Automatic annotation (TrEMBL):
Protein origin, superkingdom: Bacteria
Coiled-coil spans in chain: none
Entry's Gene Ontology BP terms: DNA transposition
SUPFAM superfamilies: Homeodomain-like
Family matches, as InterPro entries: Homeodomain-like_sf, Transposase_8, Transposase_8_domain
One function term, GO molecular function aspect: transposase activity
A Pfam family matched in the record: HTH_Tnp_1
Protein name: Transposase IS3/IS911 family protein
Length: 64
């Protein structure tokens, strides 16, 4: 175990966290999970960008 962790430059606690999170998943389910996490990240960024844009528009309208 320690050798594998050294080869991949991760700590043993990190390995066990990954194992508990991804250990029982098949490759297709893991790929789907990664895809959904990436999509979720993009959507959160989109919401943040739109919220900021909305705030700027409201500020401009308030000044007029």
């Amino acid at each position: 175990m320690a050798q594998i962790c050294r080869e991949h430059s991760i700590s043993e606690p990190t390995f066990y966290q990954w194992k508990s999170k991804y250990g029982g998943l098949e490759v297709t389910k893991l790929q789907r999970l990664k895809h959904l996490e990436e999509e979720n990240r993009r959507l959160k960024q989109l919401v943040a960008d739109l919220s900021l844009e909305n705030q700027v528009v409201k500020e401009v309208l308030r000044k007029k």
